[in-house]
Automatic annotation (TrEMBL):
Residues of the signal peptide: 1-19
Cofactor: Zn(2+)
Coiled-coil segments on the chain, per record: none
Organism: Sphingomonas hylomeconis
Entry keyword set: Hydrolase, Metal-binding, Signal, Zinc
Hydrolase recorded as keyword: yes
Domain (Peptidase M20 dimerisation): residue spans on this chain: 212-329
Keyword Signal annotated: yes
Name of the protein in its database record: M20/M25/M40 family metallo-hydrolase
Matches recorded under Pfam families: M20_dimer, Peptidase_M20
């Protein structure tokens, strides 16, 4: 039985508070600096290969580039096709280490939000900044991961580490069913003792922040119905409120009755009238109607995000109760879509990992990283393993403008992030 990390927090924090870098750790830091331009060149190569989630060949091509970096480091690399969910696949790499060493799971993703028809396609560097699709999210994160592993090899600490890497090919637009698409990641989480997610570092007011939680992402669809007829008859006992008025009443009730800490909810698309239809993907709507006809149907689709699975269940119950109070002469149906992203709660074990990272920061001469408000992060792949293993998020580089043309990575941040990751993995990857 795996012992949760927070039970071992005292042991994790037992290292001397004022320890300096060991000779191997100093070697790792020096290697990261010496190979900085090599890392930037690799990032450019990855960015210049389009790998929008639906560019299946492009995602696989990026996977091959990463394979070429990992195999010389002693990893056994496999490609797991995901044709069953209409996605490219995932890259899974393993490197067994010293017997009894903690099992480290490293998480990232190969795909970006920028598809082949996006005008934003190329890496453009200006000093220690660079624009490019996925330069920060998450190709920069993969480069930090690889730079850290190279530094560990140079310092002689990689051989002892027991590492599994899962790089998904559809993090930005997951295939359906998501349970199939994340089955390999979930299985890896059950094998691991620590999970480290190499998505981007958050920086607030010049301060690097530590991330120990991610919120869930849950989609819902609300449909209301009403009795159609001439508009002069609306609100009477026979015709009632009409579908659109009932839909807006329910949405307004969500806004006034649902709010609680760490919860956000959003209505993303609405349609209603004599007819209303959402497309199969739920992102486009068509409707017909006239101003003098009571609408017979209305549809809304949105999401909500929570910090724990208990909060998710509570919010679903409250939303369902609001919908059940539909007005006379109307009907209402609320559907929660399967396959959302679970929550990663800020557990004691995750906090202990951040404490351990701050020990690394102290020895590197860097400021301590306070925990980031989870409202600042969206959903992510590490949440699929959060119920099984303690983890940290945000080991990738700092960036700005993610998911939009002009996405810019702070190249210099790759240095400190790779140093942090290499030393942290070395310290964690010892015998338990």
């Amino acid at each position: 039985m795996k012992i949760p990390l927070f039970f071992a927090a005292t042991a994790l924090l037992a290292a001397p508070l004022h320890a300096k870098l060991t000779p191997p750790e100093a070697r790792m830091a020096a290697t990261v600096d010496a190979e900085y331009e090599r890392s930037v060149a690799l990032l450019q190569k990855l960015v210049d290969q389009n790998s929008g989630s639906m560019n299946l060949a492009g995602v696989e091509a990026v996977g091959k580039m990463v394979r070429a970096e990992l195999e010389p480091l002693g990893f056994t690399v496999a490609w797991k096709p995901m044709t069953a969910i209409k996605r490219a696949g995932h890259l899974i790499a393993t490197r067994p280490g010293k017997a009894g060493a903690r099992r480290l799971l490293l998480i990232g993703h190969l795909d970006t939000v920028f598809e082949q028809d996006s005008p934003f396609q190329k890496f453009v560097r200006t000093g220690d900044k660079a624009e490019g699709p996925g330069a920060g999210d998450d190709k920069g994160g993969m480069v930090v991961m690889i730079a850290a592993l190279r530094a560990m090899r140079a310092a002689g600490t990689l051989d002892a580490a027991n590492i599994e890497i899962v790089l998904t090919g559809d993090e930005e637009d997951s295939g359906d069913p998501i349970a199939l698409g994340r089955a390999d990641l979930i299985a890896a989480g059950k094998r691991a003792d620590v999970a480290l997610d190499f998505e981007g570092l958050f920086v607030e007011n010049g301060q690097d922040m530590g991330s120990i939680a991610r919120r869930s992402s849950n989609s819902w669809t609300l449909k209301t119905s009403g009795k159609t007829g001439h508009s002069s008859l609306i609100f009477n006992d026979t015709y009632g409120d009409g579908a659109i008025n009932e839909l807006t009443r329910i949405l307004a009730a969500f806004r006034t009755e649902l709010p609680e800490p760490n919860l956000t909810f959003n209505t993303g698309i609405v349609a209603g009238g004599a007819s209303a239809v959402l497309d199969a993907d739920g992102v486009r709507a068509t409707a017909t109607g006239k101003s003098n006809v009571i609408p017979s149907i209305a549809i809304a689709r949105g999401d909500f995000r929570t910090l724990s699975e208990a909060q998710t269940a509570r919010v679903k119950t409250r939303m369902s109760a609001i919908v059940a109070r539909h007005a006379p002469g109307t009907g209402a149906e609320l559907m929660f879509e399967p396959g959302g992203y679970p929550a990663m709660a800020p557990t004691p074990g995750n906090r202990a990992l951040l404490d351990r990272l701050n020990g690394v920061n102290k020895d590197l001469g860097l400021a301590a990283m306070p925990p980031l408000d989870p409202l600042r992060r969206g959903a992510g792949d590490i949440s699929f393993v959060a119920s099984d293993v303690d983890g940290l998020i945000g080991l990738g580089p700092a960036s700005s403008g993610d998911h939009a043309p002009g996405e810019t990575v702070d190249l210099a941040s790759m240095r400190r992030q790779a140093k942090r990751a290499a030393i942290l993995m070395t310290r964690l990857g010892t015998a338990r």
